[in-house]
Amino acid sequence: MKKLILLMILIATLSLPALAQKAGKSMSRETMRKEITDFKIKYLAQEMKLNEEQQKKFSVLYRELSEERHELFHKVHSLKKNLKEGASDEAYEAYTKASVEAKEKEAEIAKKYDSKFSEFLTPKQQYEMKMAEERFNQKMQEMRKDKHKKK
Fold first, then answer.
1. Tens digits of residue pLDDT in 73-118
2. Phi, psi torsion values for 82, nearest 5 degrees
3. What is the Cα–Cα distance from 21 to 60, expressed in whole angstroms?
């Protein structure tokens, strides 16, 4: 059942760009990221078996968490994209430093949000959230790899 739900979410996520293109529009990265976050929240809530009140709180808080994570790693990703053959030692050093700092900050963010989630989620639900996040993220990585292989 869980695999079926995840598969449905992933199929819906993959179909969003195609639908946008058919409508004569190009879906922006930001719009796509928000759509994926929406699907992820629904998937996680279902996996965690949240009641309606928990779902509302979870949705708001998880969006905040996702946005903080995105902002944190967007800078690091930008630095990495700028590393090209012949890049300066300073550019590599800046990337390395930003990467380490981002991982440290990510741990701080995780602690902050774990505390906030514990106000309305049971320990089992928090565990289920982390496991479902891993499954979701792994599936997304597999899809990205498949997409790049097809290019």
1. 998 998 888 888 888 999 999 999 999 999 999 999 999 999 999 9
2. -80, -10
3. 29
Tell me the one-letter amino acid at 1: M
Give the pair of three-digit tokens for residue 58.
Answer: 């979870």
CB 113 within 8 A of CB 135: no
pTM: 0.77
pLDDT in tens, 51-80: 999 999 999 999 999 999 999 999 899 888
What residues contact 148, with CB distance under 8 A and at least 6 apart? none
**The two three-digit tokens of residue 21, written as one number:** 């293109």
Q: What are phi and psi of 43, to 5 degrees?
A: -60, -50
What type of residue is 38?
D
CA count, 13 A, side-chain hemisphere, 21: 5
